[in-house]
Amino acid sequence: MAPPLSRRFLLQSAMLAAAVPGVSLGTGGGRAVAATIPVPSAWSVRPFELKDVRLGQGLFADKRQLMLDHGRGYDVDRLLQVFRANAGLSTKGAVAPGGWEGLDGEANGNLRGHYTGHFLTMLAQAYASTGEQVYADKIRTMVDALTEVREALRKDPRMLAVTGKWGGAHENVRGSYQYVDLPAAVLGGASSITLSVWVKPTHNANWQRIFDFGDNTTRYMYLASRNGSGVPRFAITNSGAGGEQALNGTVALPLHQWSHLAVTISGTTGTLYVNGTAVAQNTSMTLNPSVLGTLTNNWLGRSNYADDPVFAGAFDEFNVWSRALTTAEITSLQTNEAKRSSAGLGNLASYYFFATSGGTFDDASGRGLTATLRRTWGGPSHPGFLAAYPETQFIDLETRTTADYTKVWAPYYTAHKILKGLLDAYLATDDARALDLASGMCDWMYSRLSKLPDATLQRMWGIFSSGEFGGIVEAIVDLHTITGKAEHLALAKLFDLDRLIDACAADTDILDGLHANQHIPIMTGYVRLYDATGDTRYLTAAKNFWGMVIPQRMYGIGGTSTAEFWKARGVISGTISDTNAETCCAYNLLKLSRSLFFHEQDPKYMDYYERALFNQVLGSKQDKADAEKPLVTYFIGLKPGHVRDYTPKQGTTCCEGTGMESATKYQDSVYFAKADGSALYVNLYSAATLNWSAKGVTIAQSTDYPREQGSTITVGGGSAAFELRLRVPSWATAGFRVTVNGSAVSGTPAAGSYFTIPSRTWRAGDVVRVTIPFRLRVEKALDDPSLQTLFYGPVNLVGRSSSTSHLSVGLYRNAGLSGDLLPSLAPVSGKPLHYTLDGTEFAPFHEGSEDPTHAYVKRSEPKVVLGGTDSGVANPAKSDGTTLLDEIWAGAPFADKAALVARVQSTVGSWVSAGLLSQADGQKVVTTAQNATYAA
């Protein structure tokens, strides 16, 4: 149950509901009436919500179930750990997932928080698709926690009370960037001194300071829990690191256990005690606090060296005496609180760390030196700030000129994932707090970015990685349609990357050398800006951009990029490696294709959608259950013999995040409706049932596609009039047939179009049967026609072989009159869509196995073989690589054998005339064609 909302919030909500039709907010963390993102008037077709399209049994449902089970079982407190730590809250003992979503991951965990956003979106989609309460409950838990996190960040840090050595203690959670600030008088200018503290370290990073008193990196006195060798170290200097007078321990402090440390200085002797035992002594010391004088920075848990980590662990009893305690007194402190020990309380300072709801600690020494808990970074610049790390990355980016992801790693990209997750959570569960968090984030971003000159913004967004902002524009525009805030639309426009927009609007290809996934989602956002503003520059740029990627930089499976970057236009063979096709790229190209289709129903967008969805996206998910990881690829190498890695890098990567999303929205583009409701588009053939509530009918596909070559569509519910527009795939060059209630529908379906059944009144029980014959074909790499990938209908077939050299294959030997190359392969019994060729098994790319694969093969047709008969003639080639057989079969399909023979005769004649083939060899080829038998 969500907490009751404030009167002020309810008043704001009432105003919002009045301003934005269709939105009704209520108390208890939910809305009385569910809201959806208003459909833009610019869309000529409109999608259906996930809840309106139910997946049936089949390939997609099987893949989705694996992800649903992962989401159902995962402990979301682990995802919330980094957010709670950043706010100084208890992490409830949870262990962060690690990898990119943790402090020890790549680039110091500078992307942490992004995966939590992906997970929220996955849960929202899972709940929308299935209605299972477990997903809504997890969303509510996460929104509860993020609301608490934002509230904590809005205030000064407060003590996190834990069980101490003697009673209460304060814990510095790792990732909180908190420290205790002591008054400047704490050392009292003492020439003799004892500093005593109980600590319980929770992390083994070197150079964590238990205390550090100093002005800078020249004059200071510190005690580190671990030095470079991992043991405690005390040092004092007035001439920097080279002048340190030091005491080093002998063994590391144990983690998660209380240890007592004390340092005494008297005259020229300094002693370091660990748990009552003197472990180091220096009798040549010339420095003490009186020599250092009054110092500016007097800290528990923080170093004067900015790059040193903040102490992670708990503090109990910190005492300072203006004398050197005896060994006996140090021993007494091991078994007694200071006030009950022979040493008594520190006379310069004494902090008990009693539990308090605030962030100050009283001094029990009698000197009134109150200590204050602070953040190293101060605090947020705006109350809407929400992140799993300090605001420092956002600040740094504003002056940064070069990429360095160890310092700044795509902070606005991470903000996008969190924002999108919250928006999706709101739409799925009606929790108004999620909307408030999302709106607050945009208010905060606007407060930062609106103050910056345009030149600064252009520089920021142009920096590789550091300036990456993902699909944030799309999310902001979506939010604006709900909130109606002018600042939100203005914020979306602040992400204009003019160099990219202007070039693409002019159809000038500048993609060579750009990071692919940094730029694809930008374009989807610009399409949404077109929807909101009517500025055609955005839409034109996005359309042209799409054409620069597809097919110019596209691999057969629908993916793009090599080592995350684009190369020159048309270079495919020259980029084949083990780091091709970053999975996020396919995810974002699907979103862009879908968005463009809403404006222009060019079948090429849905042809691409089918290609990438049925191949790379499905194939990126391993066919295996796992509670810990989603098992999704990062790269999909297209190098011969590549084995897919479903646990990439250190985990919780961007691609695993988008992979979770993809697997819970497979049905999002199966059906679209014309904006006026007069037509229904069937874009994908998939076992999915549409509840078209506006028409009062259901549309159910029954199919095992792509293991079945067609689909049966049954109308249910009431009756309604509309056109039915069925996509004819670009590869379906022959045999596409449609019947309604058993009667053929007139018309000639054209490959790469939509076949329309004219408007009629559909009634429950009406049945449409769509037949889509598959054939085996090849697609050639743009820069090397001999490098080819095999497709059977929509299915990419990959060779399974451990060879690290391209497989050499011939396919014309038994080609059918239709041009189908499948007769040259042999089916594998009991394994649909599996075939063998020359001893190598070819299987669907969409199978998430760990077999070594060959997505591309080398085509080799050394001899002219027709209908399984070898003519004995070498297959000649032109200077561009086109062979005689290529030219013969380019004429397929053939109505009958006579048509094929006629093609052979005319082709042979032209080759003989061109001097590419001898008259005698030409006659052998013709005779072979005449005598051979062909499959249909």
Overview of the structural elements:
This protein is of the alpha+beta class. It contains 22 helices and 39 strands. The strands form six sheets. Strands 29, 30, 31, 32, 33, 34, 35, 36 and 37 form a nine-stranded mixed sheet that branches. Residues 1-33 have low confidence and may be disordered.
Give me some keywords for this one.
elongated, alpha+beta, 8-stranded antiparallel beta sheet, disordered N terminus, 22 helices, 9-stranded mixed beta sheet, 936 residues
Show the helix and strand layout:
Blueprint: H1 7-19, E1 45-47, E2 53-55, H2 59-73, H3 76-86, H4 114-130, H5 133-154, E3 161-163, E4 168-172, E5 178-181, E6 193-201, E7 209-214, E8 220-224, E9 233-237, E10 245-248, E11 259-266, E12 269-274, E13 277-282, H6 289-292, E14 297-300, E15 313-321, H7 327-332, E16 349-351, E17 360-361, E18 371-375, H8 392-397, H9 411-429, H10 432-449, H11 454-461, H12 472-483, H13 486-493, H14 498-505, H15 516-533, H16 536-549, H17 583-599, H18 603-619, H19 654-662, E19 671-674, E20 679-682, E21 688-692, E22 697-702, E23 710-717, E24 719-728, E25 737-740, E26 743-744, E27 753-763, E28 767-771, E29 776-781, E30 784-792, E31 795-800, E32 808-809, E33 826-827, E34 835-837, E35 840-844, E36 853-854, E37 857-859, E38 863-866, E39 869-874, H20 884-889, H21 897-913, H22 919-931
Parallel strand pairs: 20-24, 32-37
Antiparallel strand pairs: 1-19, 2-21, 3-4, 4-15, 5-14, 5-18, 6-11, 6-15, 7-8, 7-14, 8-9, 9-10, 11-12, 12-13, 15-16, 17-18, 19-20, 21-22, 22-23, 23-28, 24-27, 25-26, 25-28, 29-30, 30-31, 30-37, 31-35, 31-36, 33-34, 34-35, 38-39
